[in-house]
Amino acid sequence: MDIKTHMKKFNFYCASVTKERNMSGMRSYFKQHSIRVGRKWAGFHPGRMILWLFFAALALLVLYPIVFLISGSLMGNDELASYLGAVFLGKSGYADFPPLPMFPTLQHYVELFLDSPAFFVMFWNSVKITFCVLIGQFIVGTMAAWGFAKYNFPGKKGFFLLYMILMLLPFQVLMLSDYLVLDFFHLTDSLWGIILPGVFSTFPVFIMYRFFSEIPDSLIESAKLDGAKDWQLFLYLALPIGSSGIIACMVLGFLEYWSLIEQPMTFLKDKSLFPLSIFLPDITSVNKSGMAFAASVVTFLPAVLVFLGGQDYLEQGIMAGAVKE
Amino acid sequence: MKVSGKRKSRNNNNRKNMRGFLWILPSFLGVMVFYLLPYADVVRRSFLGAVDNRFVGIENYKTVLGNTAFQLAVKNTLLFTLLCIPVLIIVALFCAVTLYKSKYGGLIKSAFLMPMALPAVSVALVWRLLFHSQGLLNHWLSNVDIAGNDWMNSGSAFWILFVSYIWKNLGYDIVLWMAGLAGISTNIYEAARVDGAGEMQCFFYITLPNLKSSLYTITVLSFLNSFKVFREAYLVAGDYPHESIYMMQHLFNNWFRVFSFDKMAAAAVLESVVLLALIMLLQRAWDS
Q1: What is the DSSP letter of B258?
Q2: Above 0.90 for ipTM, yes or no?
Q3: Residues lower than pLDDT 50 in chain A
Q4: What distance in Å separates residue B266's CA from the closest CA in chain A?
Q5: Do A280 and B139 touch (CB under 8 A)?
């Protein structure tokens, strides 16, 4: 746009939005149309250009594994054999891999979905683990977070510190205690042995606590004056207002439990209970490698979809997780 | 009359107190059963012998500290964290400052965040093909006349893990840094610019000092995420990887397999104490 049309639009903008034709109106207009004035890199700047190219290249590199898996899953067996024979079949020379398949085919997906019931079982196990944990966290976690955020009771600080410490300990530290309790309840080699410790994980409590704390006390007081009971406050005030925090938790939780490795690997012996996240496909023959690519894509696809759909919530969740107490 | 009124209000207060705890109760019961009681049992076991459950004092701790596998795992874990975390934090800071509030920043940040969503198991296939002795990386290197390497079965495995960690966590740390940046008021920058400060001066005298409080949280979270590189290491190299990437989690797994619960208990208690001390120390350092 040239300066004349800008001036015209600016006049219109002032008339309709800010009602004032002054500096602050101008500033907000510039901001809205991302016009930069008086900045040293307005317009073309070679240094900045190189920086952006660098970042774009880096971003592509970061995403390379995804491209790699998708294109591999679409290649036929012959194509895979010719590119990856060096790794899979012990041929001499090096593996090679083009970014796009020459002759794309859905053959491996068809095989995966029609001829491998074991894969379906694993997919279903992953779904069960992830959704049971999320539902449990939603029920138990929101209640606890609400209690921590808006009530006072003796020893609250101590409880909260305990929750924070538990959130920070890595799996290896809690591994033996996890095993002892699961063994006591005869839950080893059962999906419940993975789900129940996940339900009582203290991490979502901490995240949701952050969001619930931001609900203004005045709002709660006025609802109380109108005669709202405690459970009504929770159901009709906390849950709707804190919903972005709850969704953030669900997104973080989905990514965590969809790719859970340590717990199922340690506690599950029965292969029919394995989730997708510990399924390492056999790639010793080319025929199987095609399936392995397709299986990898099917494994990451739900997580990537959740990521793309909930990225804003995910970022809010990451920020809320920053320990600052 | 007065007394009973007072008592009533105190009762009411207590009921209110109880009510707050009731909200926590379901969660706390679960935490108690699944985390606290078994952890207490682990502490108890760490003082008992493996076979006859006799009290042996700090014998288990001595065995663990003298164990060569334990020393190797501690050395690797320490080396890994000391190298990775500063690099990750600085690279993420550079990216965050450059991408913050810029035109394509959001898009590139999304790309950097994406690895967080990828399950380690689906990436393991890529890693195996890239870093195989006849794999893609060696192919690309041979194109520019650099001798290849058997990446996962040599000391380079450590560096592969290093890159995986940065790859996986860069987006996470960028988001955290950007949250810190968003907390700095733009007025300070405007005032500084009016006084003639350049981009560099703004960065060193405004941005950095104001990000100090974010640094603590980012360090702690990056530290905790560093334990998760075990996933990639395990999926690519199995139970007994090259000794340069033998981490604490490998050790715990191998002890678990042979039921050395006495050693596991002692090591778990040791590690939790060290972790807590570290986190407190960091907090102290930042508060002062």
Answers
A1: T
A2: no
A3: 18, 38, 40-41
A4: 10
A5: no
